[in-house]
From TrEMBL:
Chain ranges of the PX domain: 1-133
SMART domains assigned to the protein according to its UniProt record, in alphabetical order: PX
Protein name: PX domain-containing protein
Pfam families linked to this entry: PX (PF00787)
Length: 374
């Protein structure tokens, strides 16, 4: 699949992007190495490259750096941090390792969805080379082929495809996508907190149910008061039964939290990574030639070839950014699907029928207690 070469083209279809071959990133269960030198490895599985490969985080880091050299004006996805924030998480903790795996999964998903980057030789080397020599082979590849401007057959003629107002269009698109980036960032943070609260609620419900079970299983007899003893026996059985209800509610709250994290938070994070990579691609654009052109004519004559190359690169960067803008706009409908899934999850969670049943049972217990006391 290719992006339309014409800036005014419709660009790729969303279905084509989503159907693009993806890569599954899995954490290898056992850490490699000895003592404090142990490291985490990740298994990459792809239906296109057939055989799975093992990669360290340092392999991903080199791959990312070389992609930035190869595709200067493209949306190269961001990488997750190598280490946890000091005082927040231990970089050896399971939680941090899982978060980093998710970040690497988003990185590879966006790389493989990109119509230009996914078919590059550098990606093929990363997905097929032997683990011990993958970094060497990737560096050899980038040294041999250079950046996209050098290898693209269109680089010298892209100016023909540029509309007269391309600079204005680029600035308008930049402002729109930066505004979108800010909004998506806020939405992701809110949904992440709500998903976390669902998991915390599950933990509290489970603990409450265990305490109820312990109370309902208490074998000690109350003082022999004529009206209290029979009543307590009945209530103890009811309380023990309620503990199972709370266990079920805890499981449903945990399921809702996990579902929202996978179907909402992660997908918003993926879209957020896409927007961030666009912003950074904008920042890597070449500087205008104004200062260079203000030099004396004698020096301009000496640097004529450099000026021509810089001008061509400038137009090529605009051309690439226009294609990247098409990719971003192609992904925009996903936000409706993601937020729609979140709303449905919240609605389902708030109309849980078991809560009504639990209230009815509590009223029944209290009603029996009042009746027996009388």
């Amino acid at each position: 699949m290719r992006v339309a070469l014409e800036p005014a083209g419709s660009g790729p279809m969303l279905e084509d992007l989503l159907d693009h071959e993806s890569v599954k990133v899995e954490t290898v269960p056992e850490k490699k190495g000895i003592l404090f030198l142990k490291h985490v490895e990740y298994k990459l599985v792809s239906p296109h490259f057939m055989l799975p490969v093992a990669r360290r985080f340092s392999d991903f880091a080199v791959f990312h750096a070389l992609l930035l050299q190869r595709f200067i004006y493209r949306m190269v996805p961001p990488m997750p941090p190598k280490r946890a924030l000091k005082g927040v998480l231990n970089h050896r903790s399971e939680h941090f390792i899982e978060n980093r795996r998710r970040g690497l999964q988003r990185f590879m998903t966006l790389v493989m969805r990109h119509p230009i980057i996914s078919g590059d030789e550098l990606v093929k080397v990363f997905m097929t080379a032997n683990s011990a020599e993958v970094q060497v082979k990737m560096r050899e590849t980038i040294k041999r082929i250079g950046d996209e401007y050098i290898t693209c057959p269109m680089s010298a003629i892209v100016k023909r495809f540029m509309p007269d107002d391309i600079q204005t269009q680029t600035e308008v698109n930049r402002e729109f996508i930066c505004s979108m980036l800010s909004s998506i960032h806020k939405l992701r943070d809110v949904t992440e907190r709500m998903s976390q609260r669902s998991r915390e609620n599950s933990t509290d419900l489970l603990a409450f149910g265990k305490d109820l079970r312990a109370l309902g299983s208490e074998k000690a007899q109350p003082p022999q008061v004529a009206t209290a003893a029979p009543s307590w026996q009945n209530h103890r059985q009811s309380i023990h039964g309620l503990s199972e209800d709370f266990r079920i509610l805890a499981d449903k709250a945990a399921l809702q939290g996990a579902k929202e994290e996978n179907e909402v938070v992660e997908r918003l994070s993926l879209f957020l990574d896409l927007l961030q990579s666009y912003k950074r691609a904008q920042q890597r654009r070449p500087e205008p030639l104004t200062e260079l052109l203000e030099q004396p004519e004698s020096r301009l004559a000496q640097q004529e070839n450099a000026i021509v190359t810089m001008e061509l690169r400038s137009y090529f960067s605009l051309f690439c950014l226009h294609q990247e803008t098409q990719l971003v706009f192609t992904h925009l409908p996903l936000t409706t699907n993601i937020l729609g899934a979140f709303i449905q999850s919240q609605i389902q969670g708030h109309k849980e029928p078991s809560s009504n049943g639990r209230s009815w049972m509590i009223r029944e217990v209290l009603g029996k207690h009042t009746h027996n006391s009388n």
